[in-house]
Amino acid sequence: MQQIIPKKCTVLVIGGGPAGSSAATHLAKSGVDVVLLERAEFPRNQVGESLIPHFWKFTDQLGVSEQIQQQGFLRKAGGITLWNGKVQQILFSDYGYTRPGLHVERDIFDHLLLAHSKQQGALVFHRVAVKQVDLSCAQPIVYYLDTRGDSNLAGTIQCRFVVDASGHSSLLAHQLETQHSIGSEMNFLSLWGYFKNSRYVGADRQSHHSAEMKAVPPVTFVMSHANGWLWHIVLREKTSVGLIVHSEKMKAMDKQQREVYFKQSCARLPHLKDLLRDAQFIEGSLQYRPDYSYYATQTCQQNYYCIGDAAGFVDPIFSHGIQNAFYNAAVASLAISESLKNTSKSARYAQLCESRIQQFYGFSRALSLGDFGVHGVNRDLVKSLMKAMSPLELELMLVVSEMTNRSANFKQLAHEAGVWVRFSQQHEQQKRGLIEDLQF
Ligand SMILES: Cc1cc2nc3c(=O)[nH]c(=O)nc-3n(C[C@H](O)[C@H](O)[C@H](O)COP(=O)(O)OP(=O)(O)OC[C@H]3O[C@@H](n4cnc5c(N)ncnc54)[C@H](O)[C@@H]3O)c2cc1C
């Protein structure tokens, strides 16, 4: 028999990706009555398989790190970029990280996180899609469609707080018309698919057969090309390959033409074609995301919080998406549980959370995009984050920013925040990242 969706709860979370599931876990762990509605059946596909080691601090807080370790995801040693002819390598171990980055199958990873939320006491309902939220009253009313049975049933649930973690659907930002696309020259879209039997790039800078994975750990491989950049991320049974392409280039293409463009690029681009020389494309796996970089001007109010991709998204070149989702979820849940304890301060907690979310978003955007477009970044907030970061994390980010030609904003902000000096002192370390060429 189907579990009945309650009519009331304290926090209603929309979406069970990393942002929604971790918000639900934090809240359930602190004793809050939380319901999560997810429109898909899990496991469900999702892109974004590369995780930088910073994520462990969040999964430690959630209490799910051990389960992640037990899953046996591929451990990655770092990244190699080939950007405008310059090859650079980063090994996390050079920056004191003792735990690895990971290449994860997102269907498995996200499922594991959401199962953990249930174990912690969150009530999770799949195949229930939120349609609209009425925020006009102190206790919002959430309208949903329950698609679990033979016929779809409309229903409502009333709560104290809504957490919108609906990913790039950005349900609330669309409803409230607070979402903006980044108006800039960095107007890209993404096109990705999966291959069987690809070779991979190892930490020794050479290409390897997948059978060698235990002996030589993989790295994430990123390369610029004439129309954007690409990623090659090896997973346990398949390899994720994505092209980020200027939107203009693909504007007039239909689905079939995009597939031809993707396959031709994979067969033609240097290094990528060598990695894929014995590989087979998994037919039907090609996916496409046109609504690419965006942000919401208002993410937190007294009765709602938008987190993860529902609040903003930037070009994923430095794998910040999941980290951003975890971070947003941690600060939003703290703001909510404190507001529940002290209702007179709920506006202040929402405001604090808003600045934290905008701060981290601005940081990621400075790191990942070569220009800021017209709006959407509070420079002072980004500088204060740079000043507050741990030296190790900051150093890694400063070095990472040097790996592409997109770091003008980031460097400028680091100068203004007075942290660039630290980077200059570490210049030898940065030079260590520069390598002659790839040997494949
Ligand atoms: C091309 C590309 C490559 C990327 N690469 C990386 C990478 O390598 N590393 C990285 O860290 N990040 C990467 N990202 C970003 C990363 O995938 C996202 O930042 C991350 O998934 C955000 O998590 P989330 O929980 O906010 O959203 P999602 O993971 O999108 O989860 C949202 C959930 O909400 C559900 N939902 C949506 N609408 C409703 C509704 N109305 N009602 C109920 N449920 C709903 C969806 O079904 C979904 O399960 C990439 C993104 C793209 C587009």
Total strands: the figure is 25
Given as residue ranges, the uncertain stretches (5+ residues, pLDDT < 50) are none
Oligomer: single chain
- Structural class by SSE content: alpha+beta
Principal-axes shape call: globular
How confident is the prediction overall: mean pLDDT? 92
CATH superfamily of one domain: FAD/NAD(P)-binding domain
N- and C-termini, Cα separation: 57 Å
Text of the CATH class of one domain: Alpha Beta
The biggest beta sheet, please?
A: 9 strands, mixed
According to CATH, the fold-level topology of one domain is FAD/NAD(P)-binding domain
User: What is the helical fraction, as a range of percent?
Assistant: 25-40%
Instruction: Tell me the strand percentage band.
Output: 25-35%
What ligands does this structure carry?
flavin-adenine dinucleotide
Give the SSE layout.
Layout: E1 8-14, H1 18-29, E2 34-38, E3 50-51, H2 55-62, H3 65-71, E4 74-76, E5 78-83, E6 86-91, E7 101-103, H4 106-119, E8 123-126, E9 128-134, E10 141-146, E11 153-164, H5 171-175, E12 179-181, E13 188-196, E14 200-201, E15 207-208, E16 220-225, E17 228-234, E18 239-246, H6 247-250, H7 255-268, H8 272-275, E19 280-281, E20 287-289, E21 294-296, E22 300-301, E23 304-306, E24 312-313, H9 321-341, H10 346-368, H11 379-388, H12 391-401, H13 408-417, H14 420-425, H15 427-433, E25 434-435
Parallel strand pairs: 1-2, 1-11, 2-8, 5-16, 11-23
Antiparallel strand pairs: 3-7, 4-7, 5-6, 6-25, 9-10, 10-11, 12-21, 13-18, 13-19, 13-20, 14-15, 16-17, 17-18, 21-24, 22-23
Helix pairs in contact: 1-4, 1-9, 9-10, 10-11, 11-13
